[in-house]
Amino acid sequence: MTSDPAHAPLRTPARVDPSADVTGATIGAGSSVWHLAQVREGATIGRDCVIGRGVYIGSGVSVGDGCKIQNYALVYEPALLEQGVFVGPAVVFTNDTYPRAVNPDGSPKSASDWTPVGVTVREGASIGARATCVAPVVIGRWATVAAGAVVTKDVPDFALVAGVPARRIGWVGPAGLPLEKQSDAWVCPRTGSRFVESDGTLKEESRA
């Protein structure tokens, strides 16, 4: 069976507030860029995303479909966000491992004096308000970073991390709730999905 283009659902065009600064970026259908946000050249924003007030999206950053980036978050290049990522208010993704304003000879640093490194956020992950992710790090699928945490190393899929520096304090499922230990499995209290832990990683049980 093939779809009929004449009856395909219409997608709402992207909405960019007049006060936002969007130059040379690609904004997907159904997405909204709100007041005073800045989306730099070469950045790609997927479909049905929300870019909040005062957000900064760096040059060449890639944001997948269905992401929400809340007010005043700073997403510096070359960050990569897969689909369905949540970024809370005032989150910072860094991109310079050894930051300096000047070179040893006192000359101002330019783009040619350092190589930016990025933060990668996998599908469905959430980053809480005012958390800082120190590049280069990877935030795993459906992981949750607690508000105010400082992430300095990779976060496994489904991990719940908190603190400075961030450490795993539990597991979460796609519903976002902490998983509960039941016998030899971890179970989501909302969906009933079951997960098995092995060697510090978590995998969802396959369903027949």
Concise synopsis of the structure shown:
The protein is mainly β. It is built from no helices and 26 strands. It has strands at residues 15-16, 21-22, 26-27, 32-33, 38-39, 44-45, 50-51, 56-57, 62-63, 68-69, 74-75, 80-81, 86-87, 92-93, 119-121, 126-127, 132-133, 137-139, 144-145, 150-151, 159-162, 167-171, 180-182, 185-187, 194-198, 201-204.
Q: What are the low-pLDDT stretches, counting only 5+ consecutive residues below 50?
A: none
Assembly of the depicted chains: single chain
Number of distinct helices: 0
Sheet with the most strands, sense and barrel status: 9 strands, mixed
* Whole-number mean pLDDT: 93
Strand content is 25-35%
Distance between the terminal alpha carbons, to the nearest Å? 27 Å
